[in-house]
Amino acid sequence: MNKPEVVTRREELVSAPSAARPRISAKDIYEVPRLGFQALLAWTLPELAWWPLSRLFGRVNVLLHPKRTAQEIAEITPVLTGTPIENRASEIAFENWANRVEERFHYMRAWRPGGWEPIIEIIGGEHVTKSIERGSGIVFWAVNFSFKDLVAKIAWRRLGLSVSHFSRPIHGFSKTQFGVRYLNAVRRGIEDQYLGERLMAEEHETRAALVKLRERLEAKGAVSFTVGDQGRRRATARFLGGTLTLATGPLALARM
What we know:
Blueprint: E1 11-13, H1 26-44, H2 50-64, H3 66-80, H4 89-110, H5 125-134, E2 138-142, H6 148-158, E3 163-167, H7 177-191, E4 197-200, H8 207-218, E5 222-226, E6 234-239, E7 242-247, H9 249-255
Parallel strand pairs: 1-4, 2-5, 3-4, 3-5
Antiparallel strand pairs: 6-7
C-alpha cells in the first residue's frame, strides 16, 4: 500500500470549556490514587496477569453497584432474546466492566518508558488502500466496543494514516474542570501519539470542529468520530430487537 506521510499536529480545543462544569468532585479525588495503583500494576506485572486481575476488579465493581448492574442487564437482555446466548446478559455486563479495567492497564503501560505495542490484527485494511488509491477522503466511525479507544488509533497509525479525530473534553475519566485538564489527559496523551490531530469541542459548539473536519476530508485526509447520539441531527432505527439513535453528522460528511 502506498502510505501517505504521517503528520502529527497539535491537540486543539475548538470551543472553550464549559464554565458550568464543576471544578472537582469526590470521584476525582478517589480517581487519582486509583490510577496510580493501576499504573503500578501495569508497569510491574506481566501482561498475562492483566486478564485475571481485571476480572477480579470487574467483579468487585459489579457487586458494589447492584442498581447500575441490574439496569445494564435489563438493557442487554432484549438484545439477546432468541439467540443462543440469551441467558448471558449478566455475564456480558460483568465482562464489560472487567474490560474497562483491563483497558486502563493498556493506557498505564503505554506511559512506561518504551511504551506498549500490542499485537493487532487489522481486518478490512484493503478498504483504506482503495480509498488512498482513489484519492478519496476516509471517515472512520468508531463503535463503542471494548478497547476501541486506544487500539483503533494504534491500528490507524500502523496503516500509515494521519487521522483527525473529533472528541469531547469529557472523553476519559471525568467531567469536571480538574478531570478534563488532568485525569482525562492520561488517556488523551497516549491516544494523541497515534493521531494526526485531535479536535475537541463541547456538545453544543461543534460547528467549528466539523468545518475543520470537512476541510480535512476535502484535502483527501482521514477523520474519525465515535458513534453516539449527541448531535444537532439524529436518526432512530430498529436494531437488534430494540431501537438505536445516532447522530448523523459523520454520515452526512461521508456522503458529501
